[in-house]
């Protein structure tokens, strides 16, 4: 059996309001992108069983838009330790994850470095390295236990950015 991982960088956030970084919400473009991504995942039948999400406002709102567009009810975990998390911290979250299809919604640069670390071969996409807002990697791991997932073993299934949708 395999496990499927979906890595999502939060959608485009607003800089208009005088909030601290943790409190920034999405702008209209970000909401549109996150909704389009949710529709895309639904069309591909890549709806996660569980979503592990940073507790920052922009990641929570990204997750809400995606879930609304998918029309599903995954288990959602808001975790402070995913706010500006390192790849090592994201590995810790993934290795304790539950579900066959799991999504992590987090921030750059950690999510970009984590994406590079999980795949055996980078996708042939010019935006993979910089992992722009709402960039999404879908990859499969040859394991039936997230605790046994290891670096560079994820097989790329898809990689998209909002402009691809």
UniProtKB/TrEMBL annotation:
Substrate binds at residue 58. Gene3D superfamilies: Phosphoglycerate mutase-like. PANTHER family: OS09G0287300 PROTEIN (PTHR47623:SF1). InterPro entries: His_Pase_superF_clade-1, His_PPase_superfam. SMART domains: PGAM. The lineage of its organism: Bacteria, Pseudomonadati, Pseudomonadota, Alphaproteobacteria, Rhodobacterales. It holds the Pfam family His_Phos_1. This is Phosphogylcerate mutase-like protein. It comes from the Bacteria. SUPFAM superfamilies: Phosphoglycerate mutase-like. Signal peptide: none annotated.
